[in-house]
Amino acid sequence: MSELYPVFIKLEGEPCLVVGGGRVAARKVRSLLAAGARVRVISPALVDELRALAEAGEIKYEPRPYQPGDVAGALLAISATNDPEVNRQVARDCRARRVLLNAVDDPEHCSFYVPATVRRGDLTIAISTGGKSPLLARKIREQLEKEFGPQYGDYLALLGQIRHNIIRNVTDSAKKEQLLAALATPEILEALRDGDFDRVKELVERVDHRGGA
Q1: H or E stretch at 42
Q2: CA distances for 48 relative to 26, 44, 51, angstroms
Q3: Residue 61, H or E segment
Q4: How is residue 22 annotated by DSSP?
Q5: Which partner for 80 in 20, 66, 120, 152 could form a disulfide, CB atoms 3.0-4.6 Å apart?
Q6: What does pTM read for this prediction?
């Protein structure tokens, strides 16, 4: 098997299909909504969480079994049922229509895997085991959550602002490269690991001043 190609997909406003209405489907729906996707759910029944989302108009719900061709128009689909035949049908349809598919607990039929993730503001760290061990991915995620605290999100937000200032104000390419490298010096990263965000901010803003902001 070839290596997986890691990628982050922009789903804002994109149509996505979830087949299934249980707790696993609800978790998948939450993550799609957080990404701004337009979510359609097909299932004979829903857990309370999904029913509330449907009643609030946050998802489109079709109360029926999956039918061949239902994936048409979706950018990606998630199959989260406990019926192997339904999951196989969804997989066949997705292959035929070139729709990306995540089949829960069925790596053989997946065209993409949903990684375990650590989010700190705009920082996202994704862990994948290629579908072989979600448990190991979760354990690694828990370790990373301890290592990368909320201060990393604050640092990244500040970094984006200072980087914009440097690019806008510094015309000399060599100096620009030097200043951008200075935004992630060992001293800054050490302060970040120590949770000393005041020190991080002080050091980063020094770089900003050197750039003429």
Answers
A1: strand 38-42
A2: 9, 13, 5
A3: strand 60-62
A4: S
A5: 20
A6: 0.81
